[in-house]
Every structure is written in structure tokens, then in C-alpha cells.
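Researcher: Re-running this chain for the archive, since the previous output was lost when a drive failed. Same request as before.
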Amino acid sequence: MARKLHFTEAELADRRARACRAMAQAGLDGLLCFRQESMYWLTGYDTFGFVFFQCLYLGADGRMALLTRAPDRLQAAQTSVVEDVRIWVDGPDASPATELRAMLDEFGCRGRRLGVEWEAYGLTARNGQRLSAALDGYCTLSDASDLVSRLRVVKSAAELAHARRAAELADRALAAGTALARPGADEGEILAAMQAEVLRGGGDEPANEQIIGSGPHALLCRTHTGRRRLDARDMLTIEFAGAYRHYHAALMRTLAIGPHDPRLADMHKASVDALLACEEALRPGRPIGEVFDAHARVLDAAGYRAMRMNACGYSLGSTFAPNWMDWPMFYRGQPYVAEPGNVFFIHIIVFDAAAGLAMTLGRTSEVTATGSRPLSSAPLGFVPG
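Model: Regenerated C-alpha cells:
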């Protein structure tokens, strides 16, 4: 059966070798992967089947096996390099954690020290408790939730190509949405036009819902159900991502619709100044907490201390539902040191709840050998609709 891989087998093998070295440095004999992002990055395995119990075992010796459900047997065969796929069978007495222990026994894991991706949407608290019970006294478990994440944060040339393509699709989506953002326009039609650009360009649905809100909802930075038509005088906040091969490049904007409050232009100017300061601070060899410091310094000086957020962005990469946010995040004191190959989304959010005014601005940047550069070519100018 022909495989559909988005990276060469050699690159995937190199990633697994790096993970095995990281395991050795951490004193681990193997890793139990529950994060779909890890499975995709290590093997190419592409599915939303992680909503059920499934685990990829990767030994420090490089051997691996996947335990999953029957619907993902062919999924693994077509999208990954995993040859050893085990199936647990649905039923009232099904115990996949116990079956995982039996599989681990074949790999000589009894008495060994295994890392676990406890922080994973693919491992619910209930299943985590069952896993702990099944492996109690069998082996030693150690939290290794960030082992693969720390490797994934620096992208290869092939990964960066996917991120850049995602950014191109995001620019197309923004242009489509802006063209429709007029009094009387329906939010649903704007959203549909934006996502259509991504899909027509060969992209994916994003890992979380696109955010769109007008009127009082322009001050929200979370998605919500229900759409409305834009008023003659309104604001429209959109936060969305182009996605390509699961790699994301996000953009964020607040547009003024019709006659606008002059304070919006001032808020926009402060947001542009803050964004540019953040991008200047995003440099290899420097802790990324300095990016947040630049964000806070500019907005506080402009009088928006009480209206800004306590974080201003995060890493982007190949992520799966329920969100596209990746590790690490920009906040005060964040010690992670930027490296060439990092991809970060920087967002500036200013919400004046008392006045009912919103202004947001954001785009995705790649860390280079000498600094950083935006992946988006969309203009940053104030856009009244």
C-alpha cells in the first residue's frame, strides 16, 4: 500500500534518533506518546483518532509500535512509517491500558523507566488513571510531556517550507475577508470566504475554530456559536490561521466598519508600534520573555497597561485539534532562548471594555540566523471597512 508522507523517511528517522538521544539524556528507556503532534512528527501518522485511547511506543533503542483502534489501522499504514500496529477491540470490558502493558512486555519494558506524555489531549484524566493503575509495579513512569515538543520547536527546512505556504494561504484568506467586511455583511459569509481560500490553495482546516466577532463580540478572543450581520458602525475582530500539512501561520486583525471612533486609530498605532518592537526583540540567542517585555513596554507607555494581555503569542507548528497553540508562549520571564528555525505568532490585543473598543494585530514570524522575519506580506495599516 502506497504511503502518503509529507517528509522523507530519512528526515523522520533522524527525528526519531534525536528523540532517542533525548531519552538517553533523561535516563529513559522508552517513551509513551499520547500527543498526536508527537506521533505525526516522529512517524508521519496523521489522524484524529487520538480522541480515543491510542499510544505510540518509541524505545530508546529505536523500536516502536502503535496501539490504536481498528479504524486507524489503514490510517497508520497509509500515513506513517509505523510497521507494528496493534489493535485494541471496543467492548464493555475493553482495557487498552492493560493491552498496552502486554505490548510493552514484548519490548522488555518490565522494570524499566518510561517517559509519558501526560499533558496530551489524547490522554484524558480517566485514561491516565487507568494507565497508572495498569503499569503500577510494572515499570517506573516519568513525566516526559515536553520531550518531543522541545525537539519540534526548531523546524527543519521542509517544515519551514510548509509554514511559509501556510502563511501565503493566510494572506489570501485575510484579503478575502477584508474585501467582504462592510456594513450589512454576514460574519458567516466572511468566515466562509476566508476558509475557502485556504482549502482552494491545498491547505487544511485549522486545529481550532477561526475566531470572528463583531459588535460587543469584537472584544472576545475566543470563538463562540452564533453569527450576526455587521452594523453600519461596527468593529470586526478576526483571528485565523492558514494551515498546510498541519503547519499553521496565524494572523489577527480588528477592522473598523463604517464611521469609527477616532480612538481606534490611536489604539491601532500603539499596536503597530508594539508588534514591530516585539519582532525586533525576537532574536536568536535571546530569551523570548524579552518579546513580551517589548510588548508591555510599548503598550504601557501608550496608556494601555490595563487593556493589554499577560501574554502576547506563542510558537506555531504542526498541531492538531483542539488548538493551534504550541509551546512555548511569550510571557514575562519566559526563559526559552530563541533559535533559528523557530516559528512564532505574535499578537497584540488591546480591549477597552469600558468604552466598548477593540484593537488587535498579529502575524507569524520565523527566527533566522540574525533576527526574525514576518512570514506574512499583508499590510499592517489601519483598515476601516
